Batch of 4 targets.
Target 1
Amino acid sequence: VTVGESFFRMLGYDVPAKPYPVGAFQNIANDDDIQIIASAVDSWLGLATGNSVEFRVKDRSGNDHWIYSRGDVVENDANDKPIRAMGIMTDVTDRKRIEQELVNARIAAEDALHAKSQFLSSVSHELRTPLNGVLGYAQLLQRDAGVPSGSQEYLRAIESCGKHLLTLINDVLDLAKIESGNIDIVHRANDLSEIVSSVSDIVGHRAKSKGLDFVVNVAADVPHIVQADEVKLRQVLVNLLDNAVKFTAKGRVELKLDVDLDRHILLFSVRDSGMGIPDEKLRDVFEPFRQVNPQDGKGTGLGLAICRRLVEAMGGNLNLSSEFGKGSCFYFDIPLLDVPKASEPGEKIELTAEPEPDVLAKVADNPAIIVADDVAVNRHVLLGMLEDVSDDIREAANGLEVIALLKERTAQLVLMDLRMPEMDGMEATRVIKQELKMTGVSIIMASATTDEDMMAEAVEVGCDGFLPKPIGIDDLLKVVASTCGSEALVNTADVIVPDVEAPRSSVVLPPDCDLQELLMAVDLGDVTGTRELLGQLRRSRPECLGFVEEAEEFLSEFDFENLARLLRQASGEASLNGA
């Protein structure tokens, strides 16, 4: 097997006077590739099949060149033994260089994207932390009867500006998350009417305050239960409706829902009788940082860009029709997915709902609360918000201090910051719920994070809910009422978690009807529903506390198999006892 003359000319060598055997490649080949060349030649001669290989050789100046070689047997003897092969060798150095540049560029882009995500996550926390103080103190001062009425207006302006700044931060973070591909669409069974109703409640009063008619039209054949990402769908609808109200001075705003059963899609449209959009601006409506009406002076021009990307992530398309001076219609579709027969609308902890007027009346007398945050200003704001709720409030600057306070004396509620030195909120929650088995302590994570994976991890270690920073006083009181309500409290001050499991025979069992309801929730994998049912048992049947705590321990570890076994065993015993 010899090498042709053009190969040497290509590399700047003099053409040898005698045929140049492939074995002599070791004189010019890259040391790391000699075995590759030898194996390729052996393959041609031994298997009588074609082969291709890439290797490096040095030119006359000592520079590496990438060679692509393709060879094949072209003649066999009477015994089918290969006697002649032919092949070509092509200099592909430029191609390999471009490939490597592309690889390097991709690595650099991924590194930059990761760095941007880390930066935005950090910036989110750093911006929300002082904003938490600004909004918190503004809300506290507005509740102070001694503040003059003129100053109250200034305080409302401060709060309004702070909330606007928070919206801008959220918009930038949402867009960055979407562009980086870090957006997860979670389809689950939801009650569509509840989604529409909650969106209507949010936007309806804004429309009425401007004297607009707000109309919701839902076609009769629209399914009641749908598979959808409720959070993303709600975000899109609220944004589109907010824009419609914002740019409509008189007339009406309409939300319409329809279904196309042939194409298996849900159809949404938001129509207004507002100013409309000029033809020359229609192309830029969905582009980031492009405002429909710059004279408005508010916003970043990100809302519609985020909406389109969210709709596309959900499998649909968002479009627009508009006539300047007469109004606009934004319409989109999302797939109509089959709902599993066993599915019911998912119940979620809602921490942002408006509290009832008598929310403080529902809080038990002087509940024990721990406020954990490494920033003293944040702790001070929360203490001020809770001063009408309890005077049994202790402070902690990190997770270790929280654990020490709970060992000294238990609490009904821990408001736990996520990021803290020495021990963060995640690890502290895990220790409290899984190692110390303090299942009676409600832990609400108060954090500026928007990382859904981190939130999911917090739930896994035992977190009972979340409060996004900056924390609103109404949201905080709603959480206190739900976790420290007079009906929800069990006097845990004297409860000692046993080191060993109590004998099964000494545990008082709930009635079989309650056990069957629990079993149904466990079979459905409904973590929230199971937790709420156990909470109801804890409140209504304190004599069953031992059983409830055993069940809660399995639930906190997501051990559904043993939890179901416990419930079935208890159901059998309850039936035998005639419960």
Note: Confidence is low (pLDDT under 50) at residues 343-357, 486-506.
Target 2
Amino acid sequence: MPAAIHLYRRKAMYYWRRRLPNALASWFHRRHLFLSLQTPDPNFARRLVVLLDAKLEEVVTAFEHSEMHLTPPQVDDLLRDVVTKHLNKLERLSAAAKSFAGFDAAQAERDDRRAAWAYRLLHTQGSNAVVRPSDEIQMSAEGLTAADIAAVQDHLAMLRVNDLVPTRHGILQNLLAANGAPANASNLAMAQDVYFRGMWMALAQSERRYGGKIVEAEEFVDRILKDRVQPAYQLAARPLDIVQPAYVPEPNDSADCVQEQDAAAVDDRFKAMADLLVRKRSKAERWSAKSKQQATQIFDLLARFMKEERGIENMSAVRQKDLAALANFLETEIYKHHGKGKNDKDRSIAEMRIIALSKPEELRGLEPGTLNRHLTFIDQLFDLAEAEGVELDSKLKITKLRVINNTDERERDERLKLPLPKIKNLFNQPPFVNCAGWNRLSEEGAPNESLVFHGALYFVPMLMFYGGGRREEYCGLMTGDVIETNGEHPYLHIAKNKFRRIKNAQSKRNIVIHPELIRLGFLKYVSLIRSLGYELVFPDLFSPTTKSPLGNRYYKLFKPVLIAAGITEEGLGSHALRHAFGAILKKRDVREEHRADLLGHSGKSETSERYCEATEIEAMHKIVCTMPIVTGHLVAHPINLFHWVREKKTAPFSHPSRVKRAEAIR
């Protein structure tokens, strides 16, 4: 029974449910609207229902008065937006293309004419357009050759192969939203037609780009000439009796004050503010070397885009539409893997667009997570600028540009779980049983032998499965972090150290060492590493010639082992062992607070986070001992180190850079 009109209660939460009028139901293809109000409070839910009912009545009224359809002025605005956007884009691309050696203007103009005809056919026939005999006659009459006509057919096929036809709904919806129109089926169809027409009109202006036919050229020059002579004309026409002598102010302290103010003005150029932010974050040790590199890269891209595309060099001049243009560029117009090439940092925005256009559609635009990370860095930059006294536009809302994750999957289902049989099979692979040699760890050794090397590849997978820590937390362990003399059960102290950082504050914790790891010689291994004078528990991962995280080297060794064990699905990497640890403990009915302490997660509430203490080592030991034993078949071999670790030599995989090699030769 409803708690109030249109209000229903399900599992302690309130929902709003309304039956749609027949006309609206046909538009939305559903009979009812059912919406969670996200509240268990009945009074608050009733107030929300009143607002939702009123909003629905507005929509129904607008629909009944045909306000749901595009008006002629709105259609004109849509067309103007499409033509303007693509004219600007085509002119930028043509300007960039002209800078390359071997540029052929005649060929570029032919390509544009062919593309224009493709969109002309799409406008006249719809998304299933083809070149009809009547179209061939008209093309020939306008000077197109048989090769041009074939190219038009190929262009139509290319657009369909790359899923550019029909146009993606997101583009059309954004176009409608920018002009205040609802994205219903009728308006989307109209927007599609306008989009094809606008593309045709923009591409048809090829003579403007390559033939020098600029219609506003004479008017533009005339206006400049008039502006040049206007001041002199006005001065001559001014009556002599009102011309006053120039005022020369007497020297005083005010001029000095103005100069001092100018000297104290905040330098709000992008690079200056970005350098300041990087220095502050580096000094506070809030950014790792990788974060610093990522931030610098996106700040450089931000400054380049604002200067080349928007004509802006100061942060105080940025408006919301400028940031929206940048977000759109990153989301749809840049190569997905931009930044990985050694020359990417020197490319202009136009060159970035050309590179992206040469790639398939699925490789254009950044992933949502990457785009949101870039926007987070930009948000931090503008926060700093505001704190430093830069007068920013009060309407800037960078967070509104973030991409929303529309996936229907629950968070716990987004990453695949590693089944227990596959985990057991993983520990049957050569590195744990019998490998072919120190440089062939993932290959099976000679029959009737049991060659095992103790190091990161041997112990880290066990540590992750039996302790739940992160890859980098284990790979960057120091010998001092292995605590054996503070109680009955030895444990690992996870904290920031000179070799690696930790993810967040709650990552600082203790992880008890599972008895199975002790049986297989982990403590004996650590003792031997200590006696050799090493600081790192796994020195076999360290190279003096790279700054890459130690976990990268570990995963390079571990990946062939995963593949050999049949663990090839996307998302089932080494991190899946940590997820398996959490999933198994949940099935064992271990309390959420205890699981959070082991995994290094924060509590979900004030009670579980502030008013409690970390799980004691004794209790933690009992919890991890509930984990299934997947290494019971392994033999506890005498500790066998890699020869370069035992002899304290540089790792064989360590290769100095070209610069260092050149310096060594000198």
Note: Residues 72-98 form the longest helix (27 residues).
Target 3
Amino acid sequence: MAERSPAAVGVANESGDTKPLTAQADSATADDATKDLSEIPEEPTAPPKSPEDKGEQTAETTKSLPSTPSSPSDPESPATPSAQSAPSTPAAEPPELHSGHKLARRYRLEECVTRVDGFSSWRAVDEKLRRAVGIHILPSDHSRARPVLAAARSAALLGDPRFVQVLDAVEENDLVYVIHEWLPDATDLTAVLASGPLEPHDSYQMASQVSQAMAAAHREGLAHLRITPDCVLRTESGQYRIRGLAVAAALHGVSSDRPQREDTEAIGALLYASLTQRWPYPEDDHGLNGLPKDVGLVAPDQVRAGVHRGLSELAMRALVNDGATASRELQPCTTPEELAKAVAAIPKIRPPETVPSGSPYQRTTYQQGAYRQPPARQVPPPTAPLPVGPPPALPGGRTGKALKWAVSSLLIAALGLGSWQLADALMNNGDQSNGNGNTTASTSPSASGSGDTGQAGSGKPVSIVGAKDFDPEGTDGGVETPSKVPLAYDGKASTYWETSWYSRADFGGLKGGVGLILDLGKTQQVGSVKVDFIGDTTSVELRAASSDSSSMPDSLSDFSKVASGTGSDVTLKPDKAVKARYVLVWLTSLPLTGDGTYRGKVSEITVTS
């Protein structure tokens, strides 16, 4: 109910009736005005504001109401209060937001990332859980506040790890804010594409992971409607995460009567951009140049040489306009489900092989893209050897004879000493032989404990000829920073291989562990494996594979646990003799890092026999 001015109407009593004004204010004009106003039906009106407040209304507030175009000077506009409303108790204004401001006594704002259309997005810190988070904030009286709350709560119920998770959605102190994950190790596609198009394998992985994720979302009745390069993040492990599911569209007031088609075409635009570094429309957008005007939609393999033909056709099928595709025989993809199936039908594109530095299997000059052989290195001609004459003769006479006898005596003594040491070693070796002629291992600091029934190792270093990151429970086979794998055994303590970022020590509850498979070149004795970590305590297991084939095992069931340990520097020694070609260093619990996330870092691995 609107509040009337006492000067014009009267003062309301406790029962809700209106008392007449005092005799001094009682006049015919006032009575008529009171009577006329009392007969007007009361309707809810916007909270009154002073004329000065009207003038301070910003363009952002005007933009937040696209359905009713108006200007701040229009008295009938819903964006401004009625000119006939009298001033009353002013409404509480939202608190001023700045770096260091704290929401819910928990979320400390750090940096404003975006401020547009009446809302702002921030990087913040959850002081309770000591982790980085992202926050969208808008006033509770914003026209999109209710849709944003509903979208955030729906997205939070999905719980798919391929999406940046919504952690909370709150209305408090005249503000609505949505808390979501913050991925410090991820880079959005806008920044990735700024340096050039993606490799075919990366484009394939992006299209596969994003289309599968959106197909799962649509099965739950959720759409994105704003899939842009800014909304797709690539982690260091090569996984793709989508942020803003349902929430981004609600924040910007976007809706569609064909959401599946909109999301599919958006994925096709991402694939097109990843192949060509061009936006598939005439307008420049997302830091990319658009296509030339008046030429229509040109297939990616006609825009840039060397584009994968299958991926080029796939992008055109997702970007279909009136049935035009790269190949007339191929049907267009109109839903993320259809697009995901089309990606799966393409023969899998293997990643470019990375050869560790110092490996004997270096690429040839032809494989490196050079057609000419490098010029032969100029080797300086060998220096002529100096003439060597016969050794000087020993002096003659008695002195010469004495020297000859002395040299002969020394030679005989040296031969005798060597023969004695050889015989002693053979005798000791015979004493250690058992009845079957086999020898048992001598006790040494590197030998196993009393429960060892096999042969102790010699303590000699074993070369690691290759390694591979291992994440069997990850998305699409899973990878964990494959480009940094060689750094785990390069002999440098300053370099390291690291896992992806997780929200908890148990890998966020998503998987049981990740690790590195080491190839020792051939089946041989494994006495111990020393693992040096960077950071706090890390839990790790040593697992050995029974297979000795030329290809690495690809399943966790191919390995058997032989040792375990916890610490920052862990030496894993099997209780029994182990012979294997492939061993797995399997991380089962990660340490907390300085930014409030959990990540494992392996600086060096050493294997001894």
Note: Residues 1-94, 355-379, 430-455 have pLDDT under 50 and may be disordered.
Target 4
Amino acid sequence: MLQKTASTDSQSQQKVVSGAELFVKSLERENVEVIFGYPGGAVLPIYDAIYDTKIRHVLPRHEQGGIHAAEGYARVTGKPGVVIVTSGPGATNVVTGIADAMMDSLPMVIFTGQVGTSLIGSDAFQEADVLGITTPITKHNYQIRNIEDIPRIIKEAFYIASTGRPGPVLIDIPKDIATGKIEYNDVDEEVNLPGYQPTLQPNYLQIRKLTEAVSSAKKPVILAGAGVLHSKATEELKKYVEQQKIPVVHTLLGLGGFPADNELFIGLGGMHGCYAANMAMYEADLLINIGARFDDRLTGNLEHFAPNATVAHIDIDPAEIGKNVSTDIPVVADAKEALKQLFDQDGKPPVHQEWMNKINNWKKEYPYFYKEDSEYLKPQKVFELIYEKTNGEAIVVTDVGQHQMWAAQFYRFNKADKWVTSGGLGTMGFGLPASIGAQIASPDETVVMISGDGGFQMCLQELQIISEHKLPIKMVIINNQSLGMVRQWQELFYEERYSHSLIPGQPNFIKLAEAYGIKGYTITTSEEADKILNEVLHNNEPVLLDFRVEPKECVYPMIAAGKGLHEMVGVKPND
């Protein structure tokens, strides 16, 4: 419900407006800056109203490109990404992006057109049961049946999407609701949702219990997930870590939540994480999870995950606590608020220099590595060069696959909100459109988009947006002429039976870029990579870089499916 307080001169401001006009006024009230949308029959009244607004509208070349762009915008800004699509296929084309945003906790508000209310349920032209389709993959969804509900529902949607654990909220708008008329009252509105009250403040007794556990721990480890970033708790995490001298492991989505150059940072954990991070979690006697999901790519075989550890889990979503890993100290709270209270406790910081020495020895003995023993350019070298030449300051947006893992391994993130990737759903095609949203969100920053040659072709039509809006995105294709991660698994686990994972005969990506008015370069050596990256990374125009890399390179280290954290392979050059 919304509580409404009429402004002092409301009577003089009353006028008759359409539902579409009321829709636009509601977006303006939410301070929406950008809409990513694609018009169609069911949303034509809304688009007619958009014609007169000052809100920036970005037209993707496919609805999936639009929602991934909105995800990139949301990830960098923390504000809800806003998407408008028409009914039927327009709505179903954004389902992948909605599921992606749900898995990665991104604030989104998606508006779908719908056939008129009298036609709903009749299999009318371009009708789809969007509420039924999206109920499992949204934080909440609505279908507006009364024009007067438009301001309330939009206000609630933005609030729900951006509070608690962020996530996508969908609003389905029948065409007759958009064309209907109502007397408009300019009112101030407040959200009143008694059934939705996220817990922000932690239980004091649980904080004390965790403080006592930290004081007695000999081998503590903090696992920092994306929840640290969503709650803007990076400074609080750094203060607490340095106060208690507890080493930090990051999840894939948590990268940047704690500086990679800090001596207490161990590294990325999980399937392709570093040896030191995984062994630290395996041997820990206290594991403090802050805002991570304990997903299977992080934990490996649960039987061998932190088997000797007392597990504490701080999360704003109570459904995550105990879902996958048994939790001894549950703390339902916003990460920032929990860290503030932990820092203020009077617990004695533990002394565990022997533990830190062991971790540092692991880091020294088992770093990420690759062999430069091939006629081909090594993909890891490309990431080292990009990191060096951007000074670690770029916003890095990736697609999904081998290149994503190499980026996480070899690009060191020292600041928050510089890393945009599809983690939970692992959506190929995400990278290119997401970089568009990231660049629109941060027009003065260098955005580097990294994709494989397979994933790049899934949403390549969005090159037109980059050209049209003159977005200076640096597009990197790691071209190994295969679906790299699929090929790697077939090599390791399917006796090198490369069933439909090799994709020779790729298009000429440079000519493709030129068709959209974008410069492109093919790069085959380290020397070329060094020279061209120096030329293009800091100019103010888009560029596409086709790196022809070693086609059989694999991502190591690796934990095979069903194995534990301590059963990594490829941790040394001779493994």
Note: The two ends are 61 Å apart (CA to CA).
